[in-house]
Amino acid sequence: xxxxxxxxxxxxxxxxxxxxxxxxxxxxxxxxxxxxxxxxxxxxxxxxxxxxxxxxxxxxxxxxxxxxxxxxxxxxxxxxxxxxxxxxxxxxxxxxxxxxxxxxxxxxxxxxxxxxxxxxxxxxxxxxxxxxxxxxxxxxxxxxxxxxxxxxxxxxxxxxxxxxxxxxxxxxxxxxxxxxxxxxxxxxxxxxxxxxxxxxxxxxxxxxxx
Length: 210
What we know:
By secondary structure, the chain is an alpha+beta fold.
């Protein structure tokens, strides 16, 4: 296993539910510790120029109450911003996105270590959840945490993110990520058969044959 793929094991994952005004929401949580000061991690997650280096280009009015747009991906409103520890945004994609929010929480562990925690809470169409489970968004967030970790340590994905995703290493990373979300899904109470079916569907989506 390559050093990059091995970073799958650096992430803690949880799957759950939460009641919101719009109904029952699904929750996924990822947690990882970085060898970087909390102010540096916060800046990497909130400075638009730096966000584009490890995640996606972002535009908009990046302040509390403002709106942002990630290139080719989600957009929304900045709901809470409490430097350097808490950032919450709505996370909307498509014509009828429904309720979806992302919260990032940072905790310092000494001067040069930071615990990064991201929770995504969304009301998911039953058919989509039944088919893919938490891996539908979980694999993408695993990739985001990988990119942030490489960036904070002065590295980057070989050949760039798009080319890397179709490489053997990228495909193995996403396959193992899908499997890890299956383990977290089962730990949340899903049956072994349901979790396995979700892993198969998620892996086929992110790592198609051919």
